[in-house]
Design brief:
Blueprint lengths: L1 E8 L4 E7 L4 H7 L17 E6 L2 E2 L11 H5 L2 E3 L4 E2 L3 E5 L12 E12 L3 E8 L13 E6 L4 E6 L8 E7 L5 H8 L5 E8 L11 E6 L4 H12 L6 E7 L8 H6 L7 E7 L18 H5 L4 E6 L1 H14 L5 E7 L4 E5 L1
Parallel strand pairs: 1-7, 14-15, 14-17, 15-16, 17-18
Antiparallel strand pairs: 1-2, 3-5, 3-7, 4-6, 8-9, 8-13, 9-12, 10-11, 10-13, 18-19
């Protein structure tokens, strides 16, 4: 039996290693040629200290208090030289991937589908050329896609779930955009080079209520999250608010609605900012956030949208004195995601 360990580095790079039953994380990383920080490897110095974001594990008793205090352990800090996983885990590593002598995964894929949605967005689906190189990622993360012939790349969140041979993306149409120009002439069978996964915006483990706030093509990572939750048979209360500027910007609503039949406690609402729209809910997502859900406490908020939307939600929470159990957000520009914050 092996457990998959996601190592999230400070520079946004994520690498996955398989940890054998009874194997320590530090040893599994070294076996995969990833040099996690270490000095003594005996639970004495604390150099290998990381934060366990999710998963089950055993730390044993072969380390000293100076290396890892009881309070630190209670907060989720671990010593990778002593940590033996008993499930898949996610670790936050307090250094860069370069310092650990590793880097971003690169792989090639073939275009299998390009589906425009009016002038708002394009659904892009890819098949990884080497099935043994299908990238592992956390639901919510993104990759860089090289734009053929440009020498440049653009960053897009996965809309598909981890573990699929098909990779899905929801890409905003931008007039005269670099990727948009290529997609306009692309055809199934064209090949693309990708780098990733990356990003600290991803679904965390837990059983409390979830409030998802999506702006435009910021819907993409939530499709990945919802699929993961549905496959796991999640019973969590989940509410998604999908906000756009115009009616035509509402895409893949049928796909979102289908999750109501797979997740027993899932609801969603669409919101259009254009006041001339006949949509039943107009305005901004902050005007349609469920107050009862927020007042009950324990809710985790995930937010993905353009910078003005992210700033507006943050300001609204501060003004209303709302302190969610977790607040994870990712700003994105038309060209690339910005730094995600947890």
């Amino acid at each position: 039996m092996c457990y998959r360990i996601a190592l999230n580095f400070e520079d946004g790079v994520t690498r996955f290693v398989d940890c054998k039953a009874g194997e320590k994380v530090l040893d599994a990383a070294f076996r995969n040629r990833i040099n996690l920080p270490m000095d003594c490897s005996d639970g004495v110095c604390g150099t290998c200290k990381c934060r366990a974001e999710s998963g089950a594990y055993d730390m044993g008793e072969d380390y000293i208090e100076d290396a890892l205090t009881e309070d630190e352990a209670a907060e989720g800090l671990v010593l990778t030289c002593q940590m033996v996983p008993s499930s898949d885990c996610v670790l936050s590593v307090p250094t860069t991937s370069l310092a650990c002598k590793t880097g971003q995964q690169q792989f090639a894929a073939t275009v299998t589908r390009i589906e425009p949605h009016h002038d708002a967005a394009v659904v892009l689906e890819l098949a990884v050329d080497d099935q043994d190189a299908v990238p592992a990622f956390l639901p919510g993360q993104y990759v860089n896609i090289d734009v053929p012939g440009s020498g440049d790349h653009r960053s897009y969140s996965f809309s598909s779930a981890p573990g699929e041979h098909r990779l899905g993306f929801l890409i905003k149409k931008i007039p005269d955009g670099l990727m948009g120009g290529w997609l306009a002439r692309a055809r199934p069978g064209d090949r693309l080079n990708l780098t990733g996964p990356m990003g600290s915006f991803y679904l965390r483990d837990g059983d409390g209520p979830l409030l998802f706030l999506a702006g435009g093509t910021g819907l993409a990572p939530f499709l990945s999250m919802l699929e993961v939750l549905a496959r796991a048979g999640s019973q969590r209360q989940i509410h998604l608010i999908y906000g756009v500027t115009r009616d035509l910007d509402l895409v893949l609503v049928d796909q979102v609605a289908a999750y109501a039949g797979r997740l027993p406690n899932f609801t969603f609402a669409t919101v259009v900012a254009d006041q001339s729209s006949e949509h039943p809910r107009k305005g901004w997502v902050t005007q349609h956030m469920p107050q009862q859900m927020l007042a009950a406490g324990g809710v985790e908020i995930y937010l993905c949208g353009p910078p003005p939307m992210v700033d507006a939600v943050r300001r609204h929470l501060d003004e209303q004195g709302i302190e969610p159990a977790g607040f994870h957000y990712e700003k994105f520009t038309p060209n690339a995601p910005l730094k995600a914050t947890a």
